[in-house]
Amino acid sequence: MSLIVQKYGGTSVGTVERIEKVSEKLIGWRERGHKIVVVVSAMSGETDRLLNLAKAISPRPDPRELDVLLATGEQVTIGLLCIALEKRGCPARSYTGGQARILTDSAFNKARIQDIQADAIRADLDAGRVVVVAGFQGVDESGNITTLGRGGSDTTGVALAAALKADECQIYTDVDGVYTTDPRIVPTARRLDRITFEEMLEMASLGSKVLQIRSVEFAGKHNVPLRVLSTFQEGPGTLITFEEVLEAESMEKVLISGIAFNRDEAKVTVLGVPDRPGIAFSILGPVSDANIEVDMIVQNVGRDSTADFTFTVHRNDYERTLEILREQTVRLGAREVSGDNKIAKLSLVGIGMRSHAGVASRMFQALAKEGINIRMITTSEIKISVVVDEKYLELGVRALHEVFELDQVS
Ligand code: ASP
Ligand code: MG
C-alpha cells in the first residue's frame, strides 16, 4: 500500500461531470489499496472570473481581501468533489488550506508555505477516508487567508506530499506529460518518460508551463518524486526525478532533454556608455528599483572606450524600462537608448551537455543553416539560450528538434 498525493488542475475539474469522473478515478485508486490525498484547483476559468470581479471594483484590490476572494474558487471544488465521493459510498473529507493547517507567511497573493500540521489528515487517512484539500491557499500566523500565486495548487500538492512523506506526488493535467518541446510547434515532439529536477526547473523557468516553478523547487528540495500525467487518458506520464536515479537505470546519458522557448521577452540597449567601473550598476540600478526583473545581460566594448549594454526584460516591462533609461541618458553619458520587443528566447536544456563538448556549436550551426541571426547568447551548465527575432522562433525550434534528434528515443 502506498500513500499518494494527487493534484487535479482546473480543466480536470472544470465541470460537474468532470468532477464526478475524478471521483471515480479516486475510488479506483482507493480500491487498489492506496491512501489518497487529493488537491484540487478551482474549476477552470474561476480564478480569472473572481479576479475580474475584483478589478471591476478596483484596479488595485487590497491584497488581503483579494486572497479572501480568490480562495473561494478552490473551496467550491473540494465541496463538490466530496459530495461526489460520498454519493458513491466513498468516505471523504474536505479541507480548506487553513483547515489543513497549511501555514504560510503573510505575503498575500504570493505566500510561501512554512509548515503543514498534518495530524488531522493522517487520522482521516488511517480511518480510510479520501482527503480532499483546497489547493493554492493557506493561512498565516494571525489566521488570515493567503494564496500562493497563480498555479499555486501544484505547490500545495508537493508540500502535502513532503509533509506526509508520500510515495509520489501526481499532478493530473490536460497534457499527458512533459514533452521535448511544445507539440503545437513540433508535431513529432515526444513525451519524456523521465526528466531530472534540474532540467525541469530550467524548462519551467524558460516558459514550459506544465508545472509551477515553485512546486518543482519544493519537490527537488524535499525529495518528493513528482509525476505529471493526464486526467483524460491512461499513461505513465513523466516522472521528475534525480540524476542519480536516472543514471542508475539507464546506461546512456541523454544529451538534450528538451527545447524551451519564451515569447514574452524584449531587449533594451544602452548605446555608447563610458567603459568604466560602475556602469552596469548605474544602468541596472534604476531598473531593479522599479522592480523590473532583468534576464540576459551582454556588454560589448567598442574601440573608442565606450560600451554598448544590452539586456532583456519581460515584454510587459519593455515600455517602462525604456522610459526609465531614457530619463537617465544624460546621467549615464549614453549616446542612445533603443530596444526591440519582437524577440524571443530559445533554449536547449540537458544535463548531458555538462559532459559533452560541442553542443553550442551544433546549435549555432543549425540556426545559421536556417538563416536565423542570433542576437544574444547565455549559457549555464545545463542550458544554452539564444535570443532571436520572434518571427524565427518556430523555425528555430523545429531545426533544433531535428538536429538533436529529439523525436527519437535515445
Ligand atoms: N486556481 C489557481 C489559479 O488559477 C491556482 C491553481 O489552479 O493552481 O492560478
Ligand atoms: Mg496549473
Distinct small molecules bound, one entry per kind: aspartic acid, magnesium ion
Strand content: 25-35%
Query: How many helices in DSSP terms?
Result: 13
Give the CATH class of the largest domain. Alpha Beta
- Structural class by SSE content: alpha/beta
Number of strands: 18
The domain tally reads: 2
Instruction: Going across the biggest sheet, name each strand in turn.
Output: 3-6-2-1-9-11-12-10
Helix amount: 25-40%
| Euclidean distance between termini CA atoms | 33 Å
**What's the mean pLDDT score?**
94
Fold-level CATH name of the largest domain: Carbamate kinase
* Unreliable runs: none
**Rg over CA atoms:** 24 Å
Short description:
By secondary structure, the protein is an alpha/beta fold. 35% of the residues lie in helices and 27% in strands. The chain is globular, with a radius of gyration of 24 Å.
Write a structural description.
One of its GO terms (molecular function) is aspartate kinase activity. Substrate binds at residues 47, 74. ATP binds at residues 7-10, 173-174, 179, 184, 209-210. Helix content is 35%, strand content 27%. With 410 residues, it is α/β, with parallel strands linked by helices. The strands form four sheets. It has an eight-stranded mixed sheet, with helices on both faces. α12 packs across α13 (393-403). The model has no long low-confidence stretch (mean pLDDT 94). Residues 9, 151, 154 line the site of magnesium ion. Magnesium ion binds at residues 9, 151, 154.
